């Protein structure tokens, strides 16, 4: 079997030959290999605004090695989003060059596995849960509580419940329907050709309301989260053996259940040094620049280093503009792959990493 280094050298030779002959670069037809996660030096994160004019062109022209993107067409609150050509977006980006000019980009789908979102294809219930009121009567009992951080329309769930797993992974109870050719969140991601998933709200296992629901159900939430991710990984790798699993946040899971290291490929972490408020527009100052408590930062760094020591790449996303240079320096010094942006994540950052 050709080693990765040999494959890279062979591809470099092909590239030089193609350019000398006046031919298109080999990635123009999707022929290039992606980098290994351990080779990724830059990444970007955008989960809004992908259907705006020029958004995909900007991503394709960028020199990031890895992109984390919202699948978009699962947003059934918007007709335009519902008909968005996600597969075409993925194909175009997988045919664009990574930062070294030799590999193609890795294209990763953002999915929320710990919260239900009331704009998604699976949402068939009433829309609102007024603060301080009981759960609406028409909502399933596996929806536990409103989002504690203020993200509108998001609701932590009892993620071990088979009905939720069916929505995220299996789709047995959700056959294709008009305007929907996929049966689950993961099925859509696989159908559209993403290289992997970026799992948000893994921290559901530690949320107080969810933990109380787990205790009432007689289950260990940390173990159930690891089992959930393992099921997701097994389903995806049956169709794509190279499919990547990246956990976002909840780095304490490495201590609560070290088996998490067996089921993921990398960790992403928000707000190590700087955060921002929920639901802020791109230019709103509430969306960046909120310094984290120094003790919290040190604890997060301790946990991130544990993932690094276990051989897992660590991708950081901090919400800052003025302090971006300092954050990049601090993250790179610890061997992380950093990105600084704003909480709306509606376009590429204006403060890219050094050397970009």
Give a description of the structure.
Helix content is 31%, strand content 14%. The protein has a domain at 41-264: TIM Barrel (Alpha-Beta Barrel), CATH 3.20.20.70. It has helices at 4-20, 55-61, 79-82, 86-94, 162-170, 185-191, 208-217, 221-239, 253-256, 294-309, 324-333, and strands at residues 43-46, 66-69, 106-112, 115-117, 154-156, 196-200, 244-248, 266-270, 274-275, 290-291, 314-319, 337-341. The strands form three sheets. An eight-stranded parallel sheet has the order 1-2-3-6-7-8-11-12. The longest helix is centred in the middle third of the chain and has 19 residues, at 221-239. Helix 11 links the parallel strand 11 and strand 12. The chain has eleven helices and twelve strands.
